[in-house]
Amino acid sequence: MHLPGPDAEPLVGQKANRVRVHQPAETVYSVKRFMGRRGADISTEELLVTYPVKGEGAGPVSIDVHGRPWTPEEISAEILKKLKRDAEAYFGEAVTRAVITVPAYFNDAQRNATKRAANWRG
Fold first, then answer.
1. What tens digit of pLDDT does each residue of 4-30 get?
2. Contact assessment for residue 16 and residue 4, using Cβ atoms and an 8 Å cutoff
3. Weakest-pLDDT range from 41-50, 97-106, 113-122
């Protein structure tokens, strides 16, 4: 997902991936790896991404873009909102229910973070 700035709509999918080449610090990818995890849970190798990731000790992970800290749940929520809009446009009707899966290796905190992203109203 590309986060262009506070007054612009985030880009998701192929559009975001195209912008990633020119604005890598503003384009978040593979955010699922940070879902439901604390700073102490994240290895140094996992932090080797092109966007700014912060997380210390027991504190939550945040992705700071344009002076605004985003949680992995907020990023995932924006992606899910885009998928919902696309599905509604395709089917021509409101989508009110969906099945969202998580990897088998996710722990309870990661599963709960995924649920929060699906229910995000922010």
1. 777 778 889 888 989 898 999 999 999
2. no
3. 113-122
The continuous run of DSSP H or E covering 94 comes out as none
Q: Cβ of 79: how many Cβ atoms within 10 Å?
A: 19
Contacts of 107-114 with CB under 8 Å at 24 or more apart are 107/36, 109/36, 109/37, 110/35, 110/36, 110/37, 111/36, 112/36, 113/35, 113/36, 113/72, 113/73, 113/76, 114/35, 114/36, 114/76
**At which residue do the structure tokens 């929520």 appear?**
77
The CA distance from 98 to 68, in Å, is 29
